[in-house]
Specification:
The strands form three sheets. Strands 6, 7, 8 and 9 form a four-stranded antiparallel sheet that branches. α3 packs across α5 and α6 crosses α7. It is built from eight helices and nine strands. The radius of gyration is 55 Å and the shape is rod-shaped. With about 290 residues, it is an alpha+beta fold.
């Protein structure tokens, strides 16, 4: 009885091993190269269940998703002889798994080859640009050019490069102080220029304001004098008309006005009785 169980278990194990050696699955993120005794037989890039000859055919799986290459920082010399430490990365995928297997075999081997290809292209293209162009102006166009060139070389490895970017571009430590000093001096020069232009503009505004104020005051004074002259003329005319109507009464009123202004409680006037100023106060004349 025990012997029968042993035989059944042995048969089950053999069947399990045989099924595993005969059938294999390909998942959504995978692509498979089937080889027989080291020679490629077929490439499978669609998911599903597949057959292979046990113990003769082997399968090699590769990822067909987008992969990332992250390089270590390296020194690159620009056109204007500035040294930059460039830290870059790239996005890539395996598009020809058979060619990939025949050339680099593994993802680690692909990373090593990509490191050489991308760095060499970066070094060549950055060497044609000045530092300011790399940092401030031409970086996007430059990276696209590097991507196109590296993609053309990587195709020979069964690889497609979809993107190349510079994560960081730093100056060596010994150059940072000098560059920062020049940047500070340039910013201070620009600040001085702005202050000078501001002062000049302020002087123009003040000058224009003072000129307009002088013109407005002159116009106001002219108008004031004109109105005063017109008022004085009207006053003289009214007085003249009143004087013509009754000269004696007008003279009497003017004399009373003079008395009111000159003969107050604090004023002492010594005049002879026959003074013309007192003729309206002379009682004999009044009688």
């Amino acid at each position: 009885m025990n012997k029968r169980y042993v035989i059944l278990i042995a048969v089950a194990v053999v069947l399990f091993i045989g099924v595993n050696a005969t059938f294999f699955t390909v998942g959504e993120p995978d692509q498979v190269v089937v080889t027989a005794l080291g020679k490629p037989v077929r490439v499978i890039q669609e998911s599903g269940l597949y057959l292979k000859i046990p113990f003769i055919q082997q399968i090699t799986r590769f990822d067909r998703r987008l992969l990332e290459y992250d390089a270590s920082p390296r020194a690159i010399i620009t056109k204007d002889k500035k040294t930059l430490r460039v830290d870059n990365y790239a996005k890539w995928r395996i598009v020809d798994p058979l060619l990939f297997l025949q050339t680099v075999r593994t993802e680690a081997g692909a990373q090593a080859r990509l490191d050489d290809i991308i760095y060499s292209e970066l070094r060549v293209d950055l060497a044609r640009k000045d530092l300011i162009e790399i940092v401030a102006t031409d970086r996007s166009e430059l990276m696209e050019l590097v991507r196109v060139r590296t993609d053309a070389k990587a195709r020979t490895l069964g690889i497609e490069i979809t993107d190349v970017r510079i994560k960081r571009a730093d100056l060596p430590e010994q150059n940072e102080a000098a560059v920062f000093g020049r940047m500070k001096a340039e910013r201070e020069r620009i600040a001085r220029q702005f202050r000078s232009e501001g002062k000049e503009e302020a002087l123009k505004i003040r000058s224009n304001t003072d000129r307009e104020r002088t013109i407005m005051l002159a116009d106001a004074y002219e108008k004031d004098q004109t109105l005063r002259g017109e008022g004085d003329a009207d006053s003289v005319r009214v007085y003249a008309e009143a004087f013509e109507r009754d000269p004696e009464f007008f003279d009497f009123l003017r004399t009373l006005e003079a008395y009111r202004k000159s003969l107050d409680n604090k004023t002492t006037i010594l005049l002879p009785p026959q003074s013309e100023f007192l003729h309206h106060l002379n009682m004999s004349e009044i009688e």
